[in-house]
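User: Structure please.
Assistant: Input sequence and predicted structure:
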Amino acid sequence: MKKYLALRYDKTFKKGANAPMLIGVTDNEGYKEDAVVKLMSGESMSTVAFMKETMGSFIAHELELNTPKACTVIIEDEFINSQNGAVGFQNIKQSKGLNYGTHYVLDLLLFTHHSELNKQSIPMALKYSTLT
């Protein structure tokens, strides 16, 4: 799983128990992109939750499901200090170190157990159904 360094806070998403954040990140070669980060200080995040998220992502990719690829986002003092006084500062400060993230995919459709399938998603669901 690729590691990235947090550089820039963009926003906090309204949905999600862990209040995931969109954060600009860079890898060790200087390549920059955006990641959705679930901070370790999140309501239901822990080391075990981090591992479950990682395994879920790995399984989804093995099943060829259209999901963002998991990554690790490292939060260091420089990023923390740049957020001093901003909304979410305490959560960022308490999440120093390794945090679970995924590569940001613009306009990715989110599904829950309450979501209805559309015409494009039915074949994918049937592909992995144990009832067919």
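Residues 3-106 form one domain.
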